[in-house]
Amino acid sequence: MKRRTRTILLATLTVLALLAAAVGGTAYRLFFSHAFRQAETRYIHIRPGDTAADVIAMLEAEGAPSHALRGMRCLAAFYDYDRRVRSGRYAVRPGDTAFGLMRRLITGQQTPVRLVIPSVRTLDRLASAVSRRVMLDSATLARALADSATCACLGYTPQTVAALFVPDTYEVYWDMSVDDFLARMRREHARFWNEERRARAGAVGLTPTEVATLASIVDEETAVEEEKPVVAGLYLNRLRRGMLLQADPTVKYAWGDFGLRRILHRHLTIDSPYNTYIYKGLPPGPIRVASRSGIEAVLNPARHDYLYMCAREDFSGRHNFASTPAEHRRNALRYQQELNRRRIY
Which of 21, 56, 162, 327 lies 20 to 30 Å from 130, alpha-carbon distance? Predict the structure, then answer.
């Protein structure tokens, strides 16, 4: 009898051990094994209002194996993930476990995105570029940048707010709000405009916003990097002498047409504060988001006595510079003759 009891007990323990091993093995496979075995890191983008089912569907769309999905469903139920879904961009790395991934999702451990702030001609284009990298709606951002109250909170007007942006690549969170984005740009602006750069701006007689305004004109005048300090020095010379800037890009901006290939007399008559052929000094604000090289050119201008510039007649994108009206007229005549020869009117 005792032998039979021992046999039954041993059999029972064996079955229980096998069951425990099976359960443990299944649990390990579902939750702690390296279930995500794709070759490279992939990303899921969770929006506000998404559910646990939505997140698992994203994982499925990214090719997660069935046992990883089962593990995620079990963990989602156990942790009541539906009530804890947090928006953002999350990495699904090769070798991830379901438990490790769920922990990152629940605690909001996002992976930042690299956001490029470009030097572009309009704030609408800036908003579009930003919206392609983060969750922000481009129209919402564009409206904010055109809103006087929003700009005033940042220390700008809709005419000067382009000076807030310093082109560079920044790491940001994908689900940032408009307020978060603008606050970050304000911090980056303050970091860029350190004591040294502010001192250099003061040395050329400009504020940081005025530097950005002049830099935007320099950027439009030339794409040749080594010419930018020369062009900046030329316009600073004109400002110091109280001369009209007579910058063609500001006329194009006033007309809302950067595609103008030839500025005619009729273009110069437009009554706009951006028409620097009529109004002295700098225009009301930047005519584009100034590049870093444009800003540095204004802060470190070339020293010379040039007061005039004209595009070279070889259409190389470079310019002929002059110190006297007579020299400038000769340069301009050669360029105009080439425009005529090429039938550019």
Answer: 56
Beta-carbon contacts of residue 273 (< 8 Å; ≥ 6 apart): 279, 283, 284
DSSP state of 163: G
pTM of the model: 0.87
Three-state secondary structure call for residue 254: helix
Give the CA distances from residue 174 to residues 132, 167, 279, in Å, rounded to whole numbers and listed in that order: 10, 18, 43
Examine residue 3 and state whether it is found in any structural domain, yes or no: no
Query: Which ranges of the chain does DSSP label H, i.e. alpha helix?
Result: 2-27, 52-61, 66-78, 98-107, 123-131, 138-146, 148-154, 178-192, 195-203, 208-221, 228-241, 248-255, 292-299, 325-341
Q: Give me 89's structure tokens.
A: 């961009």
Q: Which of 52, 80, 107 marks a domain boundary? A: 107
Q: pLDDT tens for residues 122-159?
A: 999 999 999 999 999 999 999 999 999 999 999 999 99
Token reading at 34:
């390296």
Beta bridge partners of 115: 170
One domain, residues 82 and 132: no
Tokens of 328: 């400038």
- Domain carrying residue 177: 113-192
Q: Do both 160 and 228 map to the same domain?
A: no
Rounded-to-5 percentages of helix, strand, coil across the chain = 55, 10, 35
Residue type, 289: V
CA distance 110 to 173: 7
The last residue of one of the domains, among 141, 157, 192, is 192
Residues 101 and 154 in one domain: no
- Residue 200 CA to residue 234 CA, distance in Å, equals 17
- My answer on whether 201 and 295 are in the same domain is yes
Structural domains counted in the chain:
3
Q: How confident is the model at residue 231 (pLDDT cuts 50, 70, 90)?
A: very high
Joined together, the tokens standing for residue 208 give 């940081």
Tell me how far apart the alpha carbons of residues 199 and 79 are, in angstroms, rounded to a whole number: 55
282 C-beta neighbours (distance < 10 Å), count? 23
Do residues 175 and 89 touch, judged by C-beta distance below 8 A?
Answer: yes
